[in-house]
């Protein structure tokens, strides 16, 4: 059976690794990125560069996007020069950006008018998950369409779960971000306390990451915090965006989320301190400065 041609829009920290896995699996991959140089390594291993999103859309059977903000998603899909206006009938579009559930539904409905299938499929696992093809993928849309492209998801992810109707992938990702928001502060504060108490931090990790305090953030981002490695696996600015959407969706439902609100406040202060393009683990630097000042 001939493999589908995949169009990939957004070849940044996450997208480049995801597209690499698809190329290595034998898929023909068309790529577009706002900054062309970020796709150079993919072209070197066989990806086909497209000068415009319209060109990519016309020549792809499945189109995957992972970009920055909801406004970027809206532009690449719904603009006159965007994907929906130029994709072939029967194309499946998959947005893997963490975005607005309402926008996911709008894209789904607009795609339907052009006989195009649409899934919202945000991911969790950061740069490590993208590099190792172990991402968690949360998928909303028609189950029949999900079944048709599940093999593609399995190339880039390890925990792929169909969540139901359009928008549900995004709602699930927001639940994920709510769960980790305040937890990130807890990981950072735990490390600061252990260091100030003079403990061997590696021994501390070996004890607490296997107990009730264990989490992905502790095991994967805790060591980066200790080393002062703030390279972005997931940008501070994008985490703030996710929390903002989660707060908006919570308020629509009359929900008060104190942990989420506090985490957003802290991360906004981190961004204002010049860390917006660093990884989310850089929050430890702000907390160290704040805690020691009292």
TrEMBL record:
User: Which keywords does this Swiss-Prot/TrEMBL entry list?
Assistant: NAD, Oxidoreductase
Which residue intervals define the domain 3-hydroxyisobutyrate dehydrogenase-like NAD-binding in the entry?
A: 167-287
Which domain of life, per UniProt? Bacteria
Q: Which SUPFAM superfamilies match?
A: 6-phosphogluconate dehydrogenase C-terminal domain-like, NAD(P)-binding Rossmann-fold domains
Q: What Pfam families is this protein classified in?
A: NAD_binding_11, NAD_binding_2
Show where the 6-phosphogluconate dehydrogenase NADP-binding domain sits.
Answer: 5-164
User: Which EC number(s) does the record attach to this protein?
Assistant: 1.1.1.44
Spell out the reaction equation it catalyses. 6-phospho-D-gluconate + NADP(+) = D-ribulose 5-phosphate + CO2 + NADPH
Keyword NAD among record annotations: yes
According to its UniProt record, which protein family does this protein belong to? Belongs to the HIBADH-related family.
Protein name from the UniProt record: 6-phosphogluconate dehydrogenase, decarboxylating
